[in-house]
Amino acid sequence: MLDHSTFESFCHQYSSEQACAEALFHARWPDGFRCPTCRHPHYYLTRTRRLPLYECRSCRVQTSVIAGTIMEGSSTL
Ligand SMILES: [Zn+2]
pLDDT confidence of 40, banded at 50, 70, 90? Predict the structure, then answer.
């Protein structure tokens, strides 16, 4: 599981956090986005100060590429 410090060190391999987030997206959803709750394939992208959030267009659950980790529910995301 990725935590925040793991994410930071992981990102050092990439030219930007944006590139890192995209790499994590493809690692988490190799066949494209799937809502972790309802498996819906479409989302709204929300930019945050750090990682983008993916909001399910069906059930409105928000997730990120590292949701389910120590960062989940953090207001500092
Ligand atoms: Zn959903």
Answer: very high
